[in-house]
Design goal:
Blueprint: H1 3-33, H2 40-47, H3 51-60, H4 64-73, H5 82-95, H6 102-118, H7 127-148, H8 153-181, H9 194-202, H10 207-214, H11 220-229, H12 237-255, H13 260-274, H14 277-283, H15 285-308
Helix pairs in contact: 1-4, 1-5, 1-7, 1-8, 1-9, 2-8, 5-6, 6-7, 8-11, 8-12, 8-15, 12-13, 13-15
């Protein structure tokens, strides 16, 4: 496979997952803002590592949450906004029409056309409806990919991009929001805000999943365990890195070679596979997540050097 083809599919997966994760996060943030002290906007900007950009944008407009939503949803000058991410994913898919099915292309192109139609009147755009549409359509696109794409290198690179992006998003959300609720990192300290912890789980669509697994009241320790270490939770860091390692091994079998990216993928997966939540908190949740996020970035760079000629 040409490196340009692998690159387009890899980034298509990343951009689609980024748009989907952003939509979920904003939806949860809006609900939380109904009974908050107004700290959510800055926290969400921190999750995306865009505190400075958001601060500059905020100085030019009034309303912290409204400014945040516009910045992360419809601002085409923000390369990580939903509109920018969907546009970038569509451009990648258009370059690879021979490697994606009609179902995948039509679902993605349809979402892009819908967004453009909604944004013709930016002053009257229904941001809530736009976010809900992105959530539903992104699920349809990934679903179409699961049931129609040939299981070859194209599928592996699409999966790599999507799961690396999802692992990074989940780690960022847990890191920022957990330490907003527990600044000292102690899961057992202070009064439990049931609504706030539920919204943290809602960011990865796992409120009901938590109840099915633990069958108990919300516990910050268990919330962190679910989001990090449960391999059976599709948006947990462990599950995502397991899928990254699996797709790297399939690519290695296809090409008959292994490199530094393969080693890093296996090492990262093993770290999450054998970690124990009590030990994580003993050494420090922030430190653990910081190391995982840095290694995810390093792995992405190595994938770029090994396959994408970056």
């Amino acid at each position: 496979m040409l490196s340009s083809t692998a690159k387009n599919l890899y980034w298509m997966g990343r951009y689609l997952q980024r748009a989907k994760a952003t939509a979920r996060l904003i939806e949860a943030t809006q609900r939380m803002a109904l009974q908050s002290r107004g700290e959510e906007a800055a926290g969400v900007a921190a999750i995306f590592g865009m505190e400075d950009e958001f601060r500059q944008r905020q100085q030019q407009t009034a309303g912290r949450l409204a400014t945040l939503i516009d910045f992360l949803v419809i601002d085409e000058n923000n390369p990580s906004s939903i509109v920018s991410s969907i546009g970038a994913a569509r451009r990648n898919a258009r370059e690879e029409r021979n490697n994606v099915t009609v179902d995948v292309w039509e679902s993605l192109n349809g979402l892009w056309l819908e967004l453009n139609g909604r944004l013709k009147d930016r002053n009257g755009v229904d941001r809530g409806a736009l976010i809900e549409s992105v959530k539903k359509q992104a699920v349809m696109i990934f679903g179409a990919a699961q049931v129609t794409l040939l299981r070859d290198e194209a599928y592996n690179f699409l999966q790599l991009g999507a799961f690396l992006e999802r692992a990074d998003n989940t780690a960022r959300i847990l890191d920022v929001k957990f330490h907003m609720l527990r600044p000292d990192g102690n899961p057992n300290a202070g009064v439990l805000d049931y609504f706030a912890w539920s919204e943290l789980l809602a960011c990865i669509g796992a409120v009901r999943t938590y109840r099915r697994i633990y069958r108990s009241a919300l516990d910050p320790l268990k919330v962190a365990e679910l989001m990090m270490l449960r391999r059976d939770v599709p948006r947990s860091v462990h599950h995502c890195l397991w899928m990254v390692d699996l797709n790297m091994r399939e690519l290695a079998d296809t090409y008959g070679t292994r490199g530094e990216a393969d080693r890093l993928a296996g090492e990262l997966h093993a770290r999450l596979r054998y970690a124990k939540i009590d030990q994580v908190f003993k050494t420090g949740l922030k430190s653990f997540l910081g190391d995982v996020r840095r290694d995810v970035t390093t792995l992405s760079d190595e994938i770029g050097r090994q396959f994408l000629l970056d």
